[in-house]
Hints:
Number of strands: 14
Number of helices: 4
Shape: globular
Largest sheet: 7 strands, mixed
Distance between the termini: 5 Å
Low-confidence stretches: none
Helix content: 10-25%
Radius of gyration: 16 Å
Oligomer: single chain
Order of helices and strands: EEEEHEHEEEEEEHEHEE
Structural class: alpha/beta
Strand order of the largest sheet: 6-5-4-3-2-1-14
Strand content: 25-35%
Amino acid sequence: MKLTKKSHxxxxxxxxxxxxxxxxxxxxxxxxxxxxDAILVTxxxxxxxxxxxxxxxxxxxxxxxxxxxxxxxxxxxxAFPGRVHTVGHGDxxxxxxxxxxxxxxxxAVIHPDIPRITNVGYLIDGGKVFHPGDALTVPDQPxxxxxxxxxxxxxKIAEVIDYVREIKPRRAYDIHDALLTDLARPIxxxxxxxxxxxxxxxxxxxxxxxx
Length: 211
């Protein structure tokens, strides 16, 4: 499987000539979803869900579909009739040849005064890749490659490190990193890499790796 990092929380997975895109939001490239055979969205925040990115992907491929939780599906089903599939925690489905399991229900706490919204994570091909969205969800099976949200208004580095320790992936790639400055990256790389207990890796947007 080929993993390509897009800006912020968006990633592309390619296998057997088909492409799955997760979370093409407003912080991602305008064409982040173009070329996708299937698109997954973890929650409704704009840095993960941007209707113009979804529209560009669906217009480029009339056979492409979207899988997402109810709060997002309700906003876009009318615009993309027949192409939006609603999923929730515990669901399993196949999209673009990828086997997907849905894990999690709620976004991480930003502040007690801010109501929590729904959020799901996607476990791909039996644990090959896990994208948690904006939560520190722990799937009920091993994860080889964890997409690790490293910088957000809702987390701190101690939580990120402990999340890697709890998941125990073979490797962790940074996502949710648009707010992380280049000045701070070496600090995060050193602390997560030395304390997390897993290989900690970072891809520049547009770069790829085999997983």
